[in-house]
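Notebook, student rotation project (T.W.).
Task set for the rotation: take a protein with a known small-molecule partner, predict the structure of the complex, and write up what can be learned from the model alone. Partner molecule chosen: fe (ii) ion. Sequence and SMILES entered below by T.W., checked by me.
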Amino acid sequence: MDNFQFNTPVTVIFRSGSSRDPETYKNLIQAGRTLLVTDPTLQRFGVVDKVRIAMENAGADVLVYNEVEPEPNAATVRNVAEIAKGENVKQVVGLGGGSSMDIAKLAALMIPCPQPVELMYGVGKAKGKRLPLILIPTTAGTGSEGTHVAVVTGDDGEKSPIVGPQFICDLVILDAELTLTLPSGVTAATGIDAMVHSIEAYTSGFRKNPVSDQLAIKAFKLLFGNIRTAVMQEENIEARGNMLVGSMMAGLAFANATVGAIHALAYPLGTQFHLSHGESNSVVFAPVMRFNLPEAVTLYANLSREILPECLDVDNMDAAERLIEEMDRLIPEIGLKDRLSDYGIEKKSLNTLADGALKQERILSYNIRTMDRKDILNVYKSVF
Ligand SMILES: [Fe+2]
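Predicted structure of the complex:
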């Protein structure tokens, strides 16, 4: 077995209603200000107040920052760090989807250790020790609560992941109640993102290990087994909980392995055409798998046999192809679009998209099969 290192948050609490229960925060909140980083929608729906009141009842003095936007910019990180300055903030809580959790991660580091955001882009460039950090996801998708990655859109408009051990949080609170109000389109898109994390972690060409593999397999089974129910029956708390746990496990898996070309090809769809991260992933999901097939046959076959009993007795290639067909079928079935033209993207944009994907050099280098510009263009063409 190859040497490996596995990093994980210290504590995970999975309990419905836990985020609005003061008991959850007792002994975890330190005296002094708590910065709660979140977004305007959760504020409007009353979710932020419930969490804030529970924290206050547990003895916290809460300062709310509720201006995190989808696909947050570097400017938002600077803004939140500026607002927190002089507030004697002792800990940071991120409440929301990946955007709020990622901004919370960066705030927790930048409050005690101010540094220019743009110098943190990449792996291991962020310096210093962060404040205590609690993450509470309200979508089952990014898995950011389990990862050491924070993604911001740089001043140049490119997605810029910031990777460092400081961004692994101390406490994750998984409360399925928080995901009950999600519109079905968001449940579907974020759920696909999580499924992509599990598949890319399991088939990663770099750093995958026995622990990340087991997490990826279990995550994939949970996500595949519950995504349709979670989308069709919004109030199904069991399916919501399973999605939330699956999403975190997929986050842990890819944080300790990597993502790959599906993410590299999805990013420019977000930055250039403002598709959500889950929508972007959905469009290129099956076509990139198809490209990876020659290198990933055995791994895809393993996953296929986990979810499709009829594949137990077929050969690896058949089982792997059935897995890709199943993903092809799933995307429209849960209401997601699977063609670039469905989003109004024109053929003349394919070259710019390919250039954008090529900028994700690091993620592309982790892909199980080497991908050049022509290959990338072919994938985009196949889903036009
Ligand atoms: Fe993702």
